[in-house]
Structures are given as C-alpha cells and as structure tokens.
Write a structure and sequence with these properties.
Chain lengths: 293, 314, 334
C-alpha cells in the first residue's frame, strides 16, 4: 500500500502540477512573474538599489528620469528607483503578515462560530457573540477605523500590521462561517459522528477542509487591499514613518509636484502598487477557479 | 394473418443517436403500435431509453440526441416530418405528456387552476366561462375533492398525490389522442400511487387515448396495461400482450425482471442471463397485427412466440 | 438468541420553526431485536422510519423513551462513552456519496473506524482494509481513489465495508438499496446477508421497497405516522396480515401478475400531517373499517396466535373473532 496523503478538497499539491497550472494561462503567468519580482525586491531590493534609499542627495532634487536616476529623483533628493524597489520590503511584508494572521485567526473563529451557531447552549451563545463582534468590526469603513486606531496607538510598522490583522479577521471569519453553516448540514457530517469521531476531529477533518476554500481564495485579493490600505495610511501621514521607503508615502511626497509637471516621483510608486494589486487579484481569481472545480 | 391495420400511434424502426456520433445508439430500431383506449407499458431500468422514446414521440429530444432513421406516425401522419410550429400546435392538444415529480414539475408561481386553464387557452379559442368549466370538470375527473376551491391552490400547498393529479389533469383536459406517461407515480408513496393510477385509468377508459406508460414497475404493467414492451439499453427485447408477456416471457432479461419483481422469498435463485426457459404455445389473443409489428416479424433479430408476442433472439 | 436491542416507548418530536407547533415523527415505538436477526421497517413518507433509525443510533436525541443496547442504556451515556459504543452500532445510507467526506479516499473511509476504535498498527490496518474490501466484493483498485465517480453499487459496498470494519452488533440500513437499480439491489442484499451469516450482525432494514424487505427481513414492522401498527414474521405478514393499514399497503404494491386479485383495501383521503397529532389510532381518519373508539383511544396490541412475536394494533381487530374480522376486511376490499 503506497502512502496516501490527505488532500484538500480537490487539489493534490505537487510542484510539477503547480508549475503546469501557472503556465496554462498567460495572464496568470504574467501575474506570477510580477509577484515574483516584487518578492525579489522585498528580499534583495535595498541591497541592489543603486543609491541608498534613505539618504537624500540635495543636488539631484526633482531631476527627471535619466541614465543616473532611472525613475528620477523626488523633491527631497531621494532616488525614486531605489526607493521603489526597496519599498516592497514593507509593502509586501505588512500585507503578507497581516493577512496570514487574519486568515488563520478568522478561519479558526469562523469554524467555531459556524459550527456552534444556533445551538441552545453556552457554545451557541458564544458563537453568536463572536459573530456580532465581527459584525461590529466590519460595520465601519475600514480606512476610517484604521486611521482612528493609528491615531490612538501610533503609527509604525508593527502597529499597522496589528491593526490590519484585526480589520481583516472578520472577512475570513465570515467566509468560513458561511461555508461551515452549509457544510454542517451535509450528511457526511452526520456519518462522521456515526462512525465515532470526536467534535475536534469532526471540526478539523470534516468541516474545516471542506469550508476553507472560499477563505483561501479571498486571501490574495485581500492582500491587494492591504497594500492599498498601507499605502493609503502612509499617504495621509499615518502608518509608516519617513524616511522608510513605502509606496504610499512616496506618492504623498510627490503629489504636489505632479501639478507642476514632475510626475515621476508619484507615478512610479503608483504603478508599482497598481501592478502588484492587479497581480494579486489575478492570482486570487485563478485560484478560485482552480479550487472550485 | 389478418389484414394489417394502421394503429393510431405507430413507431416504426426508430433509431435515436447522439448528435456527436460517439457511442452506441440510444434507441435501436424500436417498433411499437398502440390503439385508442389501449395502454402500452414500456418497461426498463434507468438508462434503458424509456424517456428518450417518450421525448422522441413528442419531438422534444434534447440537443445532444437526434432521430437517425425510422418514423413516428400519429393518425397515419409522420410526426418527424412536421415543422416545429406544427408540432407545437399538436403538443398539449393531441399529444400529451405526464411527467413524474409532482410539485416540482408544476410552475410554483401559478395556481393549479391557472396552469390547467393555460393549457386550454393556448390551444382553444373559448370564453372564460367555458375554460373555467373545463378546468373544474377535469379536476373532478382526476379525483380532486372540492375542485372549485382547490383550483386556487399553489403547488407548494398540494400534497404529492394532488400535484400529480394536477399534472394528469393538464395532460388530459383537451382529450389528447396520445398520452405519454413518464413514470407518473414513481415519486409517490405506494398507497397514493395506487389511488392516482386508478383515477388515471378511469380517465383513460373515458377518453380513450392511446397511452404509453413508461415505468420500471412490472406490477403497474400487470394491473393497468394491455401490452408490454421491455427495453434494455435502447433495444426492444420483448414485446407482447400483457397476458402473453406474463405467461410466456422468454427473454432472459425479461425473466430476470419478473423474478426480482415477484414477491418471492429470495431462496429461489434469480435466473442468470444464461438460463432460459421457453414455452412456445400458439396463443390467440386480441392484440391486433399492426404494420409495425409485422415489420419486426421479418427482422431476423426477432422471433415470434405467438401472434401477440415477439422476442429478440438471444 | 441473545437480545441485542430493546426499544421502549420511543418518542421524537420536533418543534416547528416559528410556531408553537410540534411535529411528532416517532410516536411511541417499542420492539426488540436479537443478534443476527433482520427487522424490516416499512412505511410511507411521514411514517417516521428514518427518524427511528437516527434515534436508535442517537444521531438525533429522542424526546422520551429508552433504548437498551447490549444491556446498556444508550440515552444515559456520556458523549465519550457513546463514541466508544458507536463501534458496535453503525449505519449505511441511501446515497453513500453524500455520506462520504469529500476529501477522503475509499481506503481512508474504510480505515477510519479502525483508526478510531482499534489499536491496530498501520500495517495491520492495511491488511484489515484489504480483507474488508474483499469481503464486500470491492475490487482493490478502487481503494486508492475517491469514491465519487464509482458506480453506485460499488460505493454502497465501500460504505458497507466501512460500517462493518469494527464488527458492530447492529447495522441500520436506511433505504440502502433505494438508489440502486435492480441487479444492484440484489447484489447488496446478498452482501448484507453474507455478512450477517459471518458476523451475526443484527440489521434494521428501513425501506419502502417491499420486495427488498421481503428478501432480507426475518421480521417486519409496519409503521404509520410514527407508530408501529404491526410487527411480526415477514412471511406471515406479507401473506396473511389482517391489519387494515398493512393490507392496504401490501395490496397497493401490485404483483407482476395480471390475473392476481384486483381487490384492494383502500384508504380514504390523504395522509394527515404529523404536526399536532390527534390521539387515538393514527389511521382513524382514513381507515375503511374505523369505529368510534378509534378516534380517541390508541389501539391496543393484539397478539396474533401461533407465531411468536406477532402483534397488530387495531381496535375492532382486537374485539372481533378472527373469521368475522377477515370477512369484514374482505368486504371492505374493492
């Protein structure tokens, strides 16, 4: 008997199959390439940058893109190119960490919240309470809440991560809870009880694997949203502190100069954000299509 | 043999194939004949092709299937050569269908009465009073108590048996010449099914359509039908008057169906398809010789047990 | 014959959402079951037979009554004890594909009860799974893959292998043959009978298909609106029942015999709703032989002489001598 691995709903993970899947659709290939570049920048960006991204050179302030400064220099004298390729270290890190945390926490809570919903017991009431709490968090416009929380707790990378994780948790909670609510009525759950599974085994092996897909698929576009949020927070001065390179902050710094024709300080970081978010959306969609087969 | 008579409904060597061309034909050279007032039971398991036969007669084959050759004649006219428009005029009026599924086969948004009246109005040009009267009459005839009130019920308010009766009423209200009943009671509880079938049989005796009863239940064939045709994977394996079928069934498949349908203890072994018991008696019964059946008698694949019974060679 | 199951006065009521009404699915069911015996449970929709099966296995919590299984009071067990007891009582369903966890392969499905209830090593489990597959006639090649896509008959065999892996003393088959075609039905019944001879498993065979029930059951219980109206040896009931509902039910299943007697006991009207049931005999509103007391007093059980463990619930039947009653039934049949 060869070893038989437990598989998620319809996909057996194997490197070869993943590569094949990526190559099958041009858009997906392009998106993955973009993301790979961004990850590359996140890891080696600052090392490979031609100029120190945090050290301004007054002499080249607002110089247009040229041989020396590929993307030009901004109003403070920073080399835009160096900063654009160094920013992913934060611009990817913050979304990646916050979304991972909220995915894990939100899914776990969604599992419990969905499974025990409607029961007339302590667990039922707790599940209800949890759901209401998530509703409350979600009922405010995300950006406003983020601003308020940053105002209260102060900016900085760590705080932004925590705030975003809290704000995203209800998203995954809701997806998983919704799926759990329908899955738990299915006959195979009862069959799982009949065969003698404990509640925990039921949750972990029966309910969760069959409820996780919608949340997983949602992770990628949520990361895109996180990038926008991070950039947005930095744009208004909350969030990451200067002179740390961050796309949103860069757009803010260069915004005034757009009017007078020095477009490069804002446009290039803006393009970077756009490409990354777009790529994340494509990957998310492709994942959804693949997993829902 | 008597002079060949043309039956009201004749299916002559009908072949239905997949339009994509792959795989065996779904119906392979089926020939049947039904006279007014008679009910032919077409028996087969799931996938045998019963529903396909029904839909082919109605001209409602799904896009993946098409009639490759053969003819279907109603009152002597070939239905396959008619235009879609002509068929639509006939369907519901001369050719009717009763589906299974009760409530789910009815429009959930309209009352029972409205759905019956829709059938009337789409074929006849009569005033409201007449339409209402016809609807009440047919509801009465299918055994719905207090029809005037029931006509205002929506499908979800009806029980399974009631809903099925509405379907029968819809099919029979215009006194069609041909009625196709596609497992009309398969979803119903046994006692309700018996009641519904009784009512249906009563209506049929009154209006005398030629009926094809598609079913998996040999008991229904025994009790209500005049003829029996056994389909197996698109092939007609046995075709006889009911009396002859149950007395002299010869094909191993028919025998296997009969053995498992009998309320037997199960200690008797079910005949495998290798075992055969044949009895050839001459058997004069009133199942007229039709052109369609005669055609099959000359087919080398079939042999005649008596003049109301043919079986495919095995 | 050791007694395996003893059900007494089992009741299950469901609240109807949004109202104060109560739906009574099981309304006072009592019977016993010996090891290696098959009890067929027959009834139409609304009879409560499916809910009965789930109550016995405690997949649904009964409202009242007792269930004695292998001498233990099932309803009083704590959840951990109940879980352990489940290795002795199993169920197979009408549509096995709905009862399988979509992420599990056939091998994993059959192995799971072994993992949960035994201490076999990986290797021992593997050989046990293979042995079970062979026992139910499941070809080895299907074990590696998922059950979806296999023909219904094979999936049901896999479900049976999974259900008997821990050699339970009781197996409930809930419409286990209803989704299969003719030959599939016969094959599954054969598998079940073979396993019963091997392991002395007691079966509760719930079905609306009388021919299947006839083949496999030693005794049969006829249910209507949550009550058993007759219980006794299968042959006796099928050929000689005098309970009006049993007769109506059995005569409504047509014999494949055009010369069989046309006469049937017919029930009036339609089955009433199981919500807010009236007291008295559940058949009162439809029975052709209904009497005054049938409407108010629940019918007593009348032991039918001769065969052991054969009784029927019917008022007039209890009061009248057998021949008189038989004549009245015959007169009522049309």
């Amino acid at each position: 008997m060869s070893s038989i691995a437990v598989t998620t709903k319809s996909v057996t993970l194997s490197g070869k199959r993943i590569v094949h899947w990526i190559g099958s659709d041009v858009r997906l290939t392009v998106a993955v390439v973009i993301l790979t570049c961004m990850v590359f920048c996140a890891i080696w960006g600052p090392r490979l940058a031609p100029y120190n991204p945090e050290l301004p050179d007054q002499a080249v302030r607002l110089s247009a893109p040229s041989r020396h400064h590929l993307f030009g220099a901004d109003v403070n004298g920073f080399d835009v190119f160096s900063r654009v390729i160094s920013a992913p270290r934060l611009d990817l890190l913050i979304p990646a960490v916050s979304v991972s945390v909220s995915l894990a926490v939100g899914s776990f809570l969604g599992l419990l919240g969905g499974f025990f919903a409607g029961r007339r017991s302590v667990s039922g009431w707790l599940a209800e309470l949890l759901t209401r709490l998530m509703d409350i968090i979600q009922s405010f416009p995300v950006f406003i809440v983020a601003l308020v929380l940053v105002g209260v707790a102060g900016g900085g990378t760590q705080n932004v991560i925590i705030i975003l994780a809290v704000l995203f948790t209800p998203i995954f909670f809701r997806y998983v809870r919704g799926q759990v609510l329908s899955e738990r009525e299915r006959l195979f759950i009862e069959a799982g009880v009949a065969i003698g599974n404990s509640w925990w085994r039921l949750l972990a092996l029966y309910v969760l694997p069959n409820s996780f897909t919608p949340a997983l698929v949602q992770a990628s576009p949520t990361m895109g949203f996180a990038i926008l949020l991070t950039a947005g927070l930095s744009f208004v001065g909350a969030g990451v502190r200067p002179p740390t390179p961050e796309w949103g902050a860069m757009i803010a710094a260069g915004a005034e100069q757009m009017v007078t024709g020095q477009w490069w300080a804002s446009v290039f970081p803006g393009l970077a954000i756009g490409l990354t978010v777009f790529a994340l959306a494509i990957v998310g969609e492709a994942l959804r299509v693949r997993l829902e087969e | 043999m008597a002079v060949a008579v043309q039956a009201r409904l004749e299916v002559n060597r009908l072949w239905v194939e997949r339009t994509a061309g792959r795989g065996p034909a779904v119906l392979q050279g089926i020939s049947l004949a039904v006279q007014p007032g008679q009910m032919l039971g077409v028996v087969g398991e799931a996938g045998a092709g019963k529903s396909v036969l029904g839909f082919a007669i109605l001209g409602l084959l799904p896009p993946g299937l098409c009639v490759a050759r053969g003819s279907i004649k109603l009152h002597g006219e070939d239905l396959l050569s008619k235009s879609d428009k002509a068929l639509r005029a006939i369907r519901g009026r001369d050719l009717a269908l009763i589906l299974s599924g009760g409530r789910t086969a009815l429009n959930p948004m309209e009352t029972a009465g409205t759905q019956i009246k829709n059938v009337i109005r789409s074929h006849l040009d009569v005033d409201t009073a007449t339409t209402d009267r016809m609807a009440i009459d047919i509801l009465n005839a299918v055994g719905i108590p207090d029809p005037a009130r029931r006509a205002h019920s929506y499908p979800h308010e009806l029980s399974g048996g009631m809903a099925q009766r509405i379907l029968i009423a819809q099919a029979m209200v215009l006194s069609p010449s041909v009625l196709i009943a596609d497992e009309p009671t398969s979803d119903l509880d046994v006692t309700v099914a018996a009641q519904v079938l009784d009512q249906m049989k009563g209506l049929i005796e009154g209006k005398e359509p030629s009926t094809i009863m598609l079913t998996r239940d040999l008991g229904i064939v025994a009790k209500y039908c005049d003829g029996a045709a056994v389909l197996r994977q698109g092939v007609l394996v046995e075709y006889a008057s009911v009396a002859s079928f149950f007395a002299h069934a010869s094909h191993p498949y028919s025998l296997a169906l009969l053995a498992s349908a009998k309320q037997a203890r199960g200690d008797e072994p079910v005949p495998s398809f290798d075992e055969v018991s044949r009895e050839r008696h001459s058997y004069g019964r009133t199942f007229k010789d039709f052109a369609a059946m005669r055609d099959m008698l000359t087919d080398p694949d079939y042999m005649q047990i008596n003049d109301a019974h043919i079986v495919r060679r095995f | 014959m050791a007694e395996v199951l003893r059900v007494a006065d089992l009741v299950k009521k469901f609240p109807v959402a949004g109202t104060r009404l109560v739906l009574t699915a099981v309304n006072g069911v009592s019977f016993t079951l010996d090891e290696g015996e098959t009890l067929g449970v027959v009834g139409e929709s609304g009879s409560g037979k499916t809910t009965l099966g789930r109550c016995i296995l405690r997949l649904v919590e009964p409202t009242s009554g007792t269930i004695g299984f292998l001498g233990r009071d099932v309803l009083s067990l704590r959840s951990s004890e109940m879980r352990r007891l489940r290795s002795e009582m199993q169920i197979i369903y009408q549509n096995p594909w709905e009862a399988f966890n979509p992420i599990m392969t056939v091998y994993q499905l059959i192995e799971e009860p072994l993992k949960l209830h035994t201490r076999l090593t990986r290797k021992e489990s593997a050989s046990e799974v293979l042995r079970l597959a062979e026992l139910v006639g499941l070809p080895g090649e299907v074990l590696k893959g998922k059950p979806r896509g296999l023909p219904a008959g094979l999936q049901q065999r896999a479900a049976i292998a999974r259900a008997v892996a821990t050699k339970p003393r009781l197996l409930i088959a809930d419409e286990a043959t209803s989704s299969l075609d003719l030959s599939g039905r016969l094959q599954i019944i054969e598998v079940l009978q073979h396993l019963q001879r091997e392991f002395k498993i007691a079966y509760i065979f719930i079905s609306h298909d009388l021919t299947s029930v006839l083949r496999i059951s030693h005794r049969v219980a006829i249910m209507y609106l949550g009550q058993i109206l007759e219980l006794g040896p299968t042959d006796a009931i099928f050929s000689g029942s005098q309970q009006p509902y049993s007769r109506a039910l059995l005569s409504s299943v047509f014999r494949p015999d055009p010369w069989a007697s046309e006469r049937r006991v017919r029930l009036r009207a339609e089955i009433p709703s199981p919500i807010d049931l009236l007291s008295g005999c559940p058949l009162a509103s439809r029975c052709p032989l209904v009497e005054e007391e049938c409407h108010t007093i629940p019918p007593p059980r009348t032991a039918i002489g001769g065969a052991d463990g054969w009784w029927a619930a019917c008022h007039p039947m209890a009061l009248l001598p057998r021949e008189t009653w038989e004549r009245r039934l015959a007169d009522a049949a049309t």
